[in-house]
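Project channel, design review

CF: Before we commit to the Splendidivirga corallicola constructs, I'd like one complete example in the thread so the newer folks can see what an input/output pair looks like. Taking DUF3857 domain-containing protein.
RD: sounds good, go ahead.
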Amino acid sequence: MQNIKCNIFFLLLFLSTSPSLLGSEKKYPVSSIDESLIKDAVAVVRVDEMEFEVLSLGKAKRKVRQVITILKKGGERYKYVYVGYDKFSKVSYISGNLYDAEGEFVKKLKKSDIEDRSSISGFSIYEDNRVKIGELSSNEYPYTVEYEYEVDLNGLLFYPSWYFQSDNEVSVEQSSLKVIVPNGQELRYKELNLNHEAGISNENGKKIFFWEEENIQAFKKESYGPKLQELLPIVFTAPSKFEMDGYKGDMSSWKTLGTWQNKLNEGRDELSDAVKLKLHELTADASNEIDKIKKIYEYLQSKTRYVSIQLGIGGWQPFEASFVDEQGYGDCKALSNYTKAMLKAVGINSHYVLVRAGENAANIDKHFPSRQFNHAILCVPTGQDTVWLECTSQTNPFGYLGSFTGDRDVLIVTEDGGKVVHTPIYKQENNLQTRFAEVNLDKQGNAKASVNTVYSGLQYENDDLNFMLNKSAEEQKKWLYEKLDLSGIKINKFELKREGDFIPAATEYLELDVPKYASVSGKRIFLEPNLLNKWSYVPSKLEERKTDIVLRKSFIDVDSIVYHVPADYYLEYKPEVITHKSKFGEYNANISIEQGKITYVRTLKIKKNRFPADHYNEFRNFIRQIVKSDKIKIVLKNST
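CF: and here is what came back for DUF3857 domain-containing protein:
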C-alpha cells in the first residue's frame, strides 16, 4: 500500500510539471501562422517586444521577449539569444522555452545552455564587453524558441534602435517597442517605413511611447537594390541629456555631441618633451606641410599596430597619447588621438573624427543627432587641401580612405563642438582599371601572355588587392591563381607593387601560360579575345521590380590586348564594333588588324547613380548585353 501511495504521488508530481500531459493550451503552433507570412521566410517572428524604461539620466532597464518559429535550416541563426553586457550593464535573468511544430512544450533553457564569453575576443587586449549566448534547437523543423531577458543599464549613451523586421527573409506577426521616460526628460525619435506612428500617453508621472507593427511579410532581396535599412520598419530613439561614467552630455545637436566628445578627449593628447624633440627632428627636412604630415603618418605606421580596447568608458574615450607612444598599440580612437598629438607637437592642428565605417555601411542620418558611429579617423585641414588619415592601418596609402570610410557623412570634432562634413568622393575618372596584354597564340590554341594591369582609386581594392600587396610572394601567388579565371593556367612570373598616395594605384604584372585557351577545329581557331575581364552575372528576370536600382561605385575599365597569331593564319571572321550606350553606362568593344597583329580593345564605364524600379528591365538588358558581348569570338583560318 505504501508503494502504491508513493507511485501515485510521483505520478501526480510528474503530471503537475508536464504541461503537455496535463492537456494545457498549446503555445505558438505553426498551423496558426498565416500563409502569407510563410512565403519567402526562413523564420517567423511570433512576438518581439522590448520595454525600455529610463530611470534617470544615466540609468535604465531593458526587458525583451522574443518568440521565433524556425521554419527551415536557413533560419537556424534565430535559435540563439544574444545578451551583451559590460561594466555599464548587468544581465538580471535569461529564460527560454522550446516548442515543437504543434506548440507542445519540449524543454526549458538550462544554465548549461548559456555560454558566457567575450564579445570581441581575439581583437582586444583590454576588454570587458561580454555576451551571454543561449541556444535552444530541435532536429525537426519547424520548431519555436521563446526567450526573455532583462538588463540593468548604468550609463546611457545609447537608447534603442528597434528593427520591427530584422532581415528580408524573416516575417513578423507582432513586434513592439515601449519606451518609458520620467516627465521632464526628453525622448527624441525617428520613424522609418512604419504603418503606425507612436502612441504617447502619461501614467504615474512618466511619459510612455509605444510602437507596434503586425503581419510584416518576408521579401526577397533584389539585385542592385538599396541597403536593407532603407526598406525595413525601424524606430531610432535617443536622449537629449545623458550621462556616461560620470560624463554628462547633450546630444540634441551635433555641436553639443561633439562638445561631449571633446570632454572625453581633453588632456589626452600630451607627449613628453623627448618625444616632441624626436618628432621635430623627424620632420625637419619636410619640404611643405603635406610632406610633414606624411612623415608623421608613416612614423605612426612603422611604430604602432591596431588592437581593440574595450574597457569601461574606453569604448568611447581614447587612451592617452603617451600610453600609445610607450606601448606601440591602440584602437582606432587611441591611434587617431596619438596621431593628433604628434601633429600638434610639430605645430599642425587636426581634428578627431567619428565615422560609421564599412564598405556597405549605411550613411548616418545627419538630421538625427545621436551616437551612430563605430570608428574614428583624423582630419587635417591644410592651406592646400584637407588630408584624411586612417590611423589603424600599417599599410594604408597616405591620405586614402577608400570604400571603408570614404564618401559618407562624418562628425568632425572641433574646438567649438561637432560638425557634420563629408569625406572624399572617389570619382569615375579616379577609379580606373587599365590593362595591356600581349598574347602569343600557337596552332594548338595554347597561349603565352604578358599582362600589365594598373588598378587605381577604388579599383585598388579589387579582390582585396590592397591587402595582398604586403603579403609574402607565396601568398600572393596563391591569391593570383584563385582570382584568375583561366583553366589550367600557369604563372611563370609575377610582380605586385603600389605607388601613389591620396589616389593610390597598384600595378600587377603577369607572365602566363594558358593551355588550350582557344579551341581548334580543322583549319580554324576560335578565340574569345576578352582574356581576363568577362562579366558573367545577369540579374534575375522579375515580374515586378519593387526597389530602386542602386549603382554604388563609379569606375572605368579599359582592356587592350594584342594577339600574335601563327604566320599562316588570317582573320576569317570578326564582329563589328560593339557599342552599348545607356543611362547606366557605356560599353565598347572593337577589334582591329594592323601589321599581322589582332588588337582587341574593350572599354566599360559605369557611374554611381540611382534609378527608379521601373527602369529595371532596361538595366537588366544593358547588363545582359555586356555579358553577351564579353563572349564574342573571332575566327582564324589556316591559309595553307
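RD: helpful, thanks. Residues 251-422 form a domain with the C8orf32 fold fold (CATH 3.10.620.30).
CF: Residues 1-23 have pLDDT under 50 and may be disordered.
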